[in-house]
Amino acid sequence: MKKIAVTGGLGYIGSHTVVELQNEGFEVVIIDDLSNSEIAVLAGIEKITGKKPAFETIDVCDTEKLRACFKKHSHIDAVIHFAAYKAVGESVAKALEYYRNNVCGLISLLTVMREFECANIVFSSSCTVYGQPDVLPVTELSPIKKAESPYGSTKQMSEDIITDTVAAEKSLSAILLRYFNPIGAHPSALIGELPKGVPNNLLPYITQTAAGLRTELHVFGNDYNTPDGSCIRDYIYVLDLAQAHVVALQRMLGSKESGSLEIFNIGTGKGLSVLEILHEFMQANGVNVPYKIVGRRAGDIEQIWAETTRANEVLGWRAHTPLNEVLQSAWKWEQKLRG
Ligand code: WQD
Question: Which end of the chain has fewer surrounding CB within 10 Å, N or C?
Fold first, then answer.
């Protein structure tokens, strides 16, 4: 049985990926410092799959502890690296924290992987590496423009670090998955998004407003150059996204060649504005979400959505869950949280 380390494995995307990995028969070691996740998620994963993954409370920046973890759980065949801070707006105010955590954490991980001859990494990258594209939809060959936020910069730097390390080390293989906007929750409502404090991201803010925890949603700007003036994003179901990681891992582990690097856009290929997804949510769940148009948020780009041919035809993966089911899963999870 192949053993996979999942950093950030108790987080939103990480936990859904752990479920899918276990469903596919992988043995999983979760490495998570609980800075943006909760230990209760471990029980949620076990309830869904019937298998409790190994768990180590480790900050990936702590190379010594990471080393001890790789030694204890030897031999780790691959790593899926999620552990990173990921709020675009927040990163503008906390730039240094973002660079330390996201970039130093990756360097620490790659160093330990090399020491333990762990030769495969699937990296959680982001569409924010494209900045504001000049041409839409974005392909994997679209220009990497200056990132609009420190978060986006950390993802660009991380991609460069991995690319150069693959070229230097020859033994390391990597797949970079550039996600768009992950939303929704596991259909069991046993795991889902757990934002700490006031949500940075759109969907949890919508569900908390629908649940009455927030007075109204603030729509950050309707004066963009889009059909209804609000920003456009490619919203992808978190479980479809999790499955993309399993497919990418199987592709890498099944390959005879080492030293390969591949990049895939993981999106639906469809753009939706803030106002469109807000109305889709209300319609899918029969709830009202009060909202107000306010000023733009620093760090936001205007519009982006994915060209997904490579993911569909080369990786062999496609987003497939209908939007209304995704939005219903988000609402079911919020209601479960409110007990
Ligand atoms: C989406 C849109 C906001 C909150 C995310 C992740 C990032 C990366 C890219 C994976 C924007 C608007 C939001 C609110 C709003 N994904 N909004 N009111 O900024 O696209 O970044 O996707 O790596 O990790 O954070 O997502 O959900 O914050 O914003 O109007 O209360 O919703 O302006 O246009 P974003 P988001």
Answer: C
Catalytic residues: 151
Indicate if ligand 1 lies below 6 Å from the C-beta of 163: no
- Convert 270-291 to b/e letters by CB count within 10 Å (16 or more is b): bbbbbbbbbebbbebbebebeb
Tokens of 282: 């209300």
CB 149 less than 6 A from any atom of ligand 1:
no
For the whole model, what pTM was predicted?
0.96
Give the C-alpha separation, 218 to 274, whole Å. 10
Burial class (CB in 10 A: 0-12, 13-18, 19+), 295: exposed
Any ligand 1 atom below 6 A from CB of 276:
no
> DSSP class of residue 297?
P
Q: Ligand 1: which atom is nearest the Cα of residue 232? A: 34
Per-residue pLDDT of the chain (339 residues; tens, 9 = 90+): 899 999 999 999 999 999 999 999 999 999 999 998 999 999 999 999 999 999 999 999 999 999 999 999 999 999 999 999 988 878 989 999 999 999 999 999 999 999 999 999 999 999 989 988 999 999 999 999 988 889 999 999 999 999 999 999 989 999 999 999 999 999 999 999 998 889 989 999 999 999 999 999 999 999 999 999 999 999 999 999 999 999 999 999 998 888 999 999 999 999 999 999 999 999 999 999 999 999 998 878 899 999 999 999 999 999 999 999 999 999 999 999 988
**What is the phi/psi pair of residue 121, to 5°?**
-135, 135
Tokens representing 67? 């080393």
Task: Tell me the C-alpha distance between 339 and 329, whole Å.
Answer: 15
